[in-house]
Amino acid sequence: MEKFDTMTGVAAPFPIVNCDTDKIIPARFLKTLTRTGLGKSLFDAMRYDPKSGEENPDFVLNKQAYRNAEILVAGENFGCGSSREHAPWALLDFGIRCVIAPSFADIFFNNSFKNGILLITLPQEEIDKLMQDAENGANARLTVDLQAQEITRPDGSKVSFEVDPFKKHCLLNGLDDIGLTMQKVEKIDNFEGKQKAATPWLYR
User: What is the pTM of this model?
Assistant: First the structure.
């Protein structure tokens, strides 16, 4: 998993409330077990015309200023619905590394951190300010400092945020569940060695 420390990127305004995981990545794209290639189908129903398949020019991520957005400023209850892990995969494959919203669905929240996406929960009044920043197009560049737990707005003012210490540690060090397990590899090897000596028939 890629480490997350400090990033500066374009923030896209996405004020949709209750954006569920089916909107993030529709069920028909869930056949793949890989984490790559899903970015092109992110927000498919909103991003493309269902008849022609052409891009919807009114959708925020199709606008030139936001095609390379790395941050979403979103509405409340972002990521509700099914527990599909493909939702954070699609966001990450598009290039989104951080989502800022008033609230998130629990399963999506945990899945995102495990895949290297920082989710920041802020009061609605702070979201409103960041949403206004994001509406300024390519000038809507925010700096997110995970170590300091601060967002720097385009005018230089800062917004503090809270984050679970364990999730912060994992993001800063690029540790997903496998990475966390591999930190214990010496203890695992020692246990297996002792178990193999005590119960060799288990290894035949």
Answer: 0.88
